[in-house]
Amino acid sequence: MSGEELLTWIAIGLMIVERISFVVMRFYEIRSNAITRELEMKLQELQNRQ
Predict the structure, then answer these.
(1) Tens digit of pLDDT per residue, the chain (50 long)?
(2) pTM score, two decimals?
(3) Can you give the pLDDT at residue 1?
(4) Cα–Cα–Cα angle for 31, 37, 22, rounded to 5 degrees
């Protein structure tokens, strides 16, 4: 395996890792937004009761 081939495979690997981490980050962002919304609704309910 030549140095150029090795660099190509490293580049491909990095692109795949970057893609996966992007998807994971989006997933957690969406999840935390949903949790935040839920907490805000519960807080609103408590304030309305008082």
Answers:
(1) 799 999 999 999 999 999 999 999 999 999 999 999 999 999 999 999 98
(2) 0.60
(3) 78
(4) 25
DSSP secondary structure of 3-50: HHHHHHHHHHHHHHHHHHHHHHHHHHHHHHHHHHHHHHHHHHHHHHH-
CA distance 37 to 6: 47
Burial 2-17 (b: 16+ CB within 10 A, else e): eeeeeeeeeeeeeeee
Q: Report the alpha-carbon distance of residue 48 to residue 9 in Å, rounded.
A: 59
